[in-house]
Design goal:
The chain is an all-alpha fold. The protein has one domain (about 1-160): Arp2/3 complex 21 kDa subunit ARPC3 (Orthogonal Bundle), CATH 1.10.1760. It has six helices and no strands. The chain has helices at about 1-25, 55-65, 70-90, 100-115, 125-155, 155-160. α1 (about 1-25) packs parallel to α2 (about 55-65) and α4 runs antiparallel to α5 (about 125-155). It is globular and about 50 Å long. The N and C termini lie close together (about 10 Å).
Length: about 170
C-alpha cells in the first residue's frame, strides 16, 4: 500500500512538473502549433528510471493541452503521442542514448496530422514541413534538454526512484 501511494505521488509530481514547464513554454509562445519547444518534453526521459513516469507524463500532457487551450484532437492525439513516446522510452531504457528517440518520432509523426487536419488546427502546410518543425523542437527539448536531465539525474536515481524503505 505504501509503495502504491509513493508511486501515485511520483506520477502526480511528474504530471505537475510537466504542466508547469508547459505553461512556462506557453508564455513564450513555444508550447503549441507549428513551432514548439516544450520544456516539459525534457521529462520524457524519466521512463529510463521508472515506469511510474509513463502515466505521469501522459496525464501531464493531457492537462497541459487542456490548460493551454488546445483543440480536442490535439488533447487526445498529443497525449497519445506522449504515451507512445513514454512507453518507447521505457522499453529502450537499456541504452540511455536511445531513450529520447520514441518521443521525438511519435510527436514528429502524430502532431503534423493535428496541425493540418480540419478537425485539428487546419493550418496550411505540408506534412513534411510540420514534421520537421515539430521534430526539431522535440530534438531540442527531449533530445538535448532531456538527455542533460537524464545524465544529471543518473547519480541520484537510487534515491529518487527506489521503493520506499518505511
Amino acid at each position: 500500500m505504501k509503495t502504491q501511494a509513493l508511486n501515485l505521488t511520483r506520477a502526480a509530481m511528474i504530471a505537475a512538473l510537466y504542466v508547469v514547464l508547459t505553461l512556462i513554454a506557453n508564455a513564450f509562445g513555444l508550447a503549441n502549433y507549428t513551432i514548439q519547444v516544450r520544456f516539459s518534453e525534457a521529462l520524457c526521459v524519466l521512463p529510463f528510471f521508472s515506469a511510474v513516469a509513463i502515466p505521469g507524463l501522459t496525464v501531464g500532457c493531457l492537462l497541459s493541452n487542456i490548460l493551454t487551450g488546445c483543440c480536442l484532437l490535439d488533447i487526445v492525439a498529443g497525449s497519445f503521442a506522449t504515451l507512445i513516446g513514454a512507453i518507447g522510452a521505457y522499453l529502450l531504457r537499456g541504452n540511455k542514448w536511445l531513450v529520447p528517440i520514441p518521443t521525438i518520432i511519435a510527436n514528429a509523426i502524430i502532431v503534423p496530422f493535428v496541425l493540418s487536419s480540419p478537425y485539428g488546427y487546419g493550418i496550411e502546410g505540408s506534412f513534411w514541413y510540420f514534421s520537421a518543425t515539430v521534430g526539431i523542437g522535440e530534438i531540442i527539448s527531449c533530445g538535448i534538454l532531456g538527455m542533460m536531465l537524464l545524465i544529471s539525474l543518473e547519480k541520484y536515481a537510487d534515491k529518487l526512484f527506489t521503493k520506499p524503505s518505511f
